[in-house]
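Thought: the user wants the 3D structure for the chain below. I'll pass the sequence to the structure tool as-is, report back what it returns, then summarize two notable features.
Action: structure_tool
Action Input:
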Amino acid sequence: MIARLWWKETRQAWPIWAFLTAGGLALQASVGWYWGDEAGPGGYVAIALVVTLMYLFLIAAAIFAGERENGTLSMLDAIPIERWRVWAAKSTFALATTAALGLVLWLGARVFGGWSSEWSKGGAVTVVWGLNGLGWGLFWSSILGNALVAAILAMAFLSISLLSLVDLNPGPANLESAPSLLIVAGLATAASAVIFQRGGPPRRASSRARPSRLATVAATATAVVAREPRPPRIWRSVAPRLAWQTLGGVRAELWTLFVLGVVGPMLLAMNTTQSDLNLIVGICLGVVAILTGVAVFNGENRGCTHRFLLQHGARPGVVWGVKVLIWWGVAVGLWMAGSLPIWLSIRAQPIAFNAGVPAVMSWATSGLTIGFAAAVLCGMVFRRGIMAGMIALVVCLLIYIPLGALFAAQVFFPWHLPYLAAALLAVSWAWSGDWLLDRPGVGRWVRLALYSIAVPAVLIPFYIASRTWTVPTLPSGTAESLFQTSRIAAPVPDDQNAAPLYHEAQLQLGGDSQPILEDGKAPEWWSGSWSFVSGDLDAHDPALAAWLGRIEPALATLRKASRMPSCRFGELSKATEFRPSPEPAPYSLMTPVVVSARVRQARGDLEGAWTEVETLLRMARQFSFTPSWSYSLFEPAGLGLAMRWAGDPRQTADSLERGLRAWRDLPPAAKKADRVRIDAVVFRNTLATPRADLVDGLFFGWAAGGRKKVQPLERLRYDLQTTPWEIERARKVFALLAAARIQEIETRPSELATSPQPWTPRLAFNWDEGAGRVRSISADELEFLSQTTSLARYSRLWQGLSSFDRDETARRALNQIFLLRIWQARHEGKLPQSLLELRSSRPDLDGEPFRGDGVAELDLYTSKPFGYIPSQGQHLLPLGSYEPIGPDRVSFERLRSTADCWLLYSVGPDAIDDRAMRNLDYSGQGDIIFPLKDGVKPPEPAAP
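Observation:
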């Protein structure tokens, strides 16, 4: 008889056993293929443990509670076998099949993970935990009549046992608490046997009743009256009755669902952190979604009442709609109540995509509805509730894990969830007729397979299309007029290209590009880029003079290179983010020129110093058309040295006029919009590279060992971000954002102090589509496109351009400084009382605009004249330093008294006139100030 019971259980359990075995081995193989050695032996053991416990809870809960649920336990009681034999047969079957599954997965872990000392520990832990879980499963299965609830309680009590008895700090493979766990398992198993034995019917035969005499009933002929066929009831009369029947099933399960979905999260919210709370509440609500989904048709399957509905003319769609809507409404109510701790904790926190709480609640409901819909379908396919629940759990894992990876890669978003939930519900609705009719044959299973295959076959192309086709395409004509690629990426003739000379200068410098002073140390000003201009320097240091003598050939080459018409290090049309132009190290080129300029000026060689300053400024203009960041290093240093040169008290009016004319004759630098155009060319080239090169260069170029040095989840995220459709979306979105950036620069030439960092669109983007039609994309739409296109955010478009505004302000200020110093030299060292007095001094110099963006005398941020006031003695940065300062000690030590100075200043990016009381800081507050010493008389003419 025990063998027959084993055979009975085998026929019912082999599909799920085979499914979990195949799924566990496939998961181990997938981990081995993608993670490789990084998974470690523990990863494979963990997979074996989890899958084995899933089957254990299923079979342990089904062997007793499943019989009660299906009403077949009374049939077992009717056969001539004691209850203890039934208990022994079923419990040993559960133990044997669980052990067989665990052994297969343990061998699979050995195959994929190789030999490790963790195998013995992992196997022992699996046995101990499995026996404890089996004991709790048998215990609750012997008591309850709902197999799914029994499985959930077994999981909960196993967790309680582990948390109470096992110290998990040393790691999961800890066997110190094995005796305690085995004792608990033995007690639970013994209690199960006693309860099952005591709960059976009495075996003593009852006294036989005296047979009664059968009454003779005369057969009477009954006239059969033909009736008119009743018209089929419409859904309005059927739906209320179905709803009443369904609500009866809801009342039977509501207490369990309420405890799991509402009471549990409320209790756990009292002593958990926010991150743990979100995880625990999410798990509880997911369990509620599976339980409610399985319960939709579990009552009909258990009582076979779907045939009753069919015989009374109920339509499949009506039955499906009423039951699903009622149970889904119950699930939503439980979700809202159970998630109340989360809503209370995040009500004051910012929400992604500027969404409100109603939108987030709808997204969460859609995500949980996916699990509900999967459980509904599993409840229709599998008649036993425990089987349906376990399969629904596996299906949910197969759905939610890929969705989580897509969410982490920022290529899938909450508003996509309703489509998947609706598709899963549509599958169960389409199959409701086959469920209700319950016809034999393979036709219904073929249709179910086709409906299931149709979900990814429809949703995946729809998702890909939504990622690419919904993004507007910038017309080619508009793109060329904005990006001006033919001009920006135009090749430079070899005879006009200074790049070979810069490479030659680097070779001439070799490893001697940094000065070493007599004490064997680098200069103090080498500690920061700002100190190139204003740091202390001993111009008479013998070691410094010797170093300048050694590198004079390289300096001559740099002077020659800077006076070439153009400079291109490689073709811009081929440059990418991870393959930049092969230019020399910027510090190695800048340091010799800066040191030479400062030493020459300190020694009184003003003409030689200006030659070096002009060299640096010309280098900055040449490098401004290359995709590197060297320009942002050269230009501030060159402008600062030029200001210090103009403020030198040894200058005469004639030398200052020559310097001003030389300054105005410099070639123009790349405009701010041109920098965006250059970055656009580079990023377009990057996206056009082969996918393998794109992934390796853009994401793994910094890793010494390539992909092997990056975490597997990071590799997966990068792989998802570089699918062909994501690359196409990034190409289209980047074109729109870069065009909007260029248009914004042309509309508003300066960055505001309130401009976000990194850059985000602030103005709508408009372009002409021809025939009088103008297309417009709002700033919010552009921001939405940027937030939902993660690959586009790897470009340089998001870098702030406020440094370009400061450089442009310094260029305009330098023009004014030259004019003020010329006035001062011609008026016995006195500076003018107003900038208006400059116009009457030298009209040929004052009225002439210099080559740059705008007119020299206007403040970039306000389009009004610069501020010009006498100083009140406040401490400010010296002339030549205009970068933002921080609140640190080093910044305050750089401040100098401005007594007896006039202050030329720009109001800065906040557009607020602070009357030059404080320098610009990193928050955009304060003014950009250029102090000029008053009372500086020019030197006396040399004696003839």
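Final Answer: Structure generated. Confidence is low (pLDDT under 50) at residues 204-209, 214-226, 702-706, 846-854. The chain has five domains: 2-198, 240-468, 480-688, 689-747+756-799, 818-944.
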